[in-house]
Amino acid sequence: MKVNCIFCKIIRGDISAYKVYEDNNVLAFLDIAPVNPGHVLVVPKVHSGNLDDVDELMLAYLMRAVKRVGKALEKGLGVKGYNVTINNGAVAGQLIDHCHIHIIPRQPKDGLTPWPQSRYKDDEARKLAAKIKASVVIC
Ligand code: 5GP
Ligand code: ZN
Questions:
Q1: N or C: the chain end with fewer CB closer than 10 Å?
Q2: Strand order in the sheet with 19-22
């Protein structure tokens, strides 16, 4: 557990947060700066820097909590859908070094634009897929 980690402080109760779900392994609380109202962060109670540090069992606990909180957003707030996102690594926008899953409620025409997409050229897709496939490690 990292003393200076803000999410560990929330887990310990050293700083406050609006908690919405908790079990033995996982805590979920409102993001302090929501993309949309009801934006929730789901975190492992054990400090884990990013996805690489989270074991399979904890991943299952996290996703179970995501599903439970998602259902609660639907039932409690009338949310019709939500985005589930992990910003994994600084280059992906991870600002807090304690793995967390964003659940972002969506509303029709809420102004959130989809990610820009592109097209592969020539043989690029086949080469990339081959490189990724050859690098898969069962961890
Ligand atoms: P990241 O960019 O690392 O994926 O997301 C970190 C999230 O943590 C941000 O959406 C940010 O608003 C949220 N956050 C940062 N500090 C606090 C805090 O002290 N309390 C709560 N509830 N959320 C925080
Ligand atoms: Zn932490």
A1: C
A2: 19-22, 26-30, 40-44, 101-106, 81-85
Q: Mutation test of ligand 1: which of 41, 83, 87, 94 has the most ligand atoms closer than 8 Å to its C-beta?
A: 41
**Burial status of residue 106 (CB atoms within 10 A of its CB: 0-12, 13-18, 19 or more):** middle
Catalytic annotation, residues: 100
CATH code for the domain in which residue 60 is found: 3.30.428.10
What is the block-wise mean pLDDT of the chain (139 residues), using blocks of 10 residues?
Answer: 84 97 98 98 96 96 98 97 97 97 96 94 97 93
Range of the domain at 24: 6-112
Any domain includes 47: yes
The pLDDT value given to residue 5: 97
Rounded CA-CA distance 43/99 in Å is 6
| Domains in the chain, number | 1
H/E stretch holding 76 reads helix 56-77
Q: Give the pLDDT confidence score for residue 138 in this predicted structure.
A: 85
> Is 84 domain-assigned?
yes
